[in-house]
Amino acid sequence: MSDLNRRLMLAGAAASVPAIAHAQAPKALLGTPLSVITSPARDFGPNAPPPASPDPDIIRADPSFGGLLIGQETIRRVSTGYHFLEGPAWSAVGLYAVFSDVKNDTLYRYLWETGQVSVMHRPSFSTNGNSFDFQGRMLSTQDYFRRVVRWELDGSMSIVADSFEGKPLNSPNDLAPHKDGSVWFTDPQYGGNLAEGHPDDGDGVRDPRLGNTGVGIQKAGGMHQELPMNVYRADPSGRVEIAVPFEPGKAPNGICFSPDYTKVYIIRAGGISVGDVNGAKVTNLRVFTDAMVDGVRCGPDGMRADRAGNIWASSAAPLGYCGVTVWNPAGKLLGRIRLPEGCANLCFAGPKRDHLFMTATQSVYMLRVNIQGAAPG
Questions:
Q1: Which of 28, 184, 220, 243 lies 20 to 30 A from 137 at CA?
Q2: Residue 149 included in any domain
Q3: CATH code: domain of residue 154
């Protein structure tokens, strides 16, 4: 056999081997996209490789959740290195989002055009919840002074509420402006500790003067709880009324309205309640969801409604369930957004108000969605 024929025969045999091997071999195994629960876990850092699309940490519990999503959009971490984040809110006029680092006594601003984060107020007097009203004015709850304030358009500050019937509030936590000009807010006791504001010194053990900045030093006796943990409504005239009286074991936390302002949602007792807005009062208060997913309580803290009436709620549950849960107006779970940290609050940001802006423990995350937030701020 000539050398040329030998080469042709070997080449033909070699060419047939891959075809035979391909026919006999099992299908190739597909890689598993990294997520917050894989090992190793997904990397959200600035030098991380591009995430998989669709995002493995966006869980569709109901097919209708797909209509609220954009397939190629993925969760992004836009800033990190904080202590305990809360109170995100969007300024449609200023094109920036604010958020609170409560325990570091700082209020930050995220500039939309550049993505830059800068200090807005320091000290913030342990500002917690934030929002913007229908006139574009910023509303904040200050744990240190145990009050609700409004930043006027000329730069001055007004006190919306700091007492009820002559007694100091406990620790206003979250708030929501109503289109009638009133401000609704929850008043639990979470800010009455050393880390988040002015400690409740009713037991005489803690000294609020230590580390005080020199403003707001209380008279002898300090501050301690005098009121039940109610939900209040402050009308434009300054009158403060109880909208939802406290029920034992049901301290209120996050609050938001439905898109038409006929319903109010209140986080309490580990779940979310909903009631009908009847002037300054709430009637027919009932359970909206117990926030249980796969037997895990997802621990909502803050929430917002979208323009379709769905409720997007934060989750401080264990890894795999911490992040955001989404519920339709009937209280049915639509989906989840998993984050590597417990999430305390969220808002809809961006010029179109179609970016979910999530404040987790030490970081801010963002996801563009196919729906817009319902309320200003």
A1: 243
A2: yes
A3: 2.120.10.30
Handedness of CA 95, 355, 120, 43 (dihedral sign): negative
Q: Which amino acid is at 134?
A: F
Q: Which helix (DSSP H) or strand (DSSP E) does residue 117 occupy?
A: strand 117-121
Asked whether residue 293 is assigned to any structural domain, the reply reads yes
Distance CA 126, CA 198 (A): 9
Spell 306-321 as b/e; 16+ CB within 10 A means b. Answer: beeebbbbbbbbeebb
Contact 159, 148 (CB under 8 A): yes
The pLDDT value given to residue 217: 53
Which helix (H) or strand (E) segment is 315 a member of? Answer: strand 311-315
pLDDT at 322: 98
Q: Which of 1-15, 209-223, 263-277 has the lowest mean pLDDT?
A: 1-15
- Which 3 state secondary structure label does DSSP give 237? coil
Residue 288 lies in a domain: yes
| pLDDT tens-digit series, residues 173-206 | 999 999 999 999 999 998 877 888 777 766 677 7
